[in-house]
Amino acid sequence: MNNPGATNPPVTEPLCAPIGEGNEIDFEIIELLFFAYRDFISDPDAILETYGFGRAHHRVVHFVNREPGLTVAALLDTLKITKQSLARVLKQLVEGGYVHQVAGPEDRRQRKLYPTRKGRELALALARPQSRRIAEAFTALDTADRQAVVRFLKGMIDQETPGAVDSGKSDGAGGEAAI
Q: What gap in Å lies between CA 157 and CA 168, rounded to an integer?
């Protein structure tokens, strides 16, 4: 019985050898980045969960604290998300007292975002475990190694990303910047 409208899946064979050897892809670095990010974000994720927040809240709180007065438009550019994606998160942060929204002085439609004391405390609570993790990883490295890591990470960022690096707020020595 042949059904002319039915499609049969192609015959497949399982591949038993892992991907990797002989390829031009650096799977070691890919996996290290995956696991480093997983662990780097795990502590803030646990903290955010107690607030009923997620990673989007973390990113907004972080950048608003790093650049008080940041416009909604600039935040959208930095995060590379849509207004719709930001709206719910920003509403929760404003209503929860973590972010204060002010109309722009020249254009009342423009919205500038400022952290509140509560928002600053949350940003620091989220950054502290990440800062400790970074400091621990750097204990075996010297200043030149740190500079190489910074160059590598900057090299991983799309150069067209506005505000992604060189915000001028880092002390460059690995200390905790006053956010």
A: 17
Integer-rounded Cα Rg, in Å, for the chain is 22
- Total domains in the chain come to 1
Cα atoms in the Cβ-side hemisphere of radius 13 Å centred on 64: 33
CA distance 82 to 72: 11
13 located within any domain: no
* 63: enclosing H helix or E strand: helix 55-66
Residues 6+ apart with CB under 8 A from 29: none
What are the tens digits of pLDDT across the range 79-138?
Answer: 999 999 999 999 999 999 999 999 878 887 889 999 999 999 999 999 999 999 999 999
Quick check: 64 and 113 in contact, CB under 8 A? yes
Residue percentage of the chain with pLDDT more than 70: 85
Whether residue 32 lies inside any domain: the answer is yes
- Around Cβ 42, how many Cβ atoms within 10 Å? 12
CATH number of the domain to which 74 belongs: 1.10.10.10
Whether 1 has a pLDDT exceeding 60, the answer reads no
Is 86 domain-assigned?
A: yes
Q: Record the tokens describing residue 65, joined without a space.
A: 């604290």
Q: Side-chain half-sphere of 98: how many Cα atoms within 13 Å? A: 24
DSSP conformational letter for 114: E
Domain that holds residue 64: 27-153
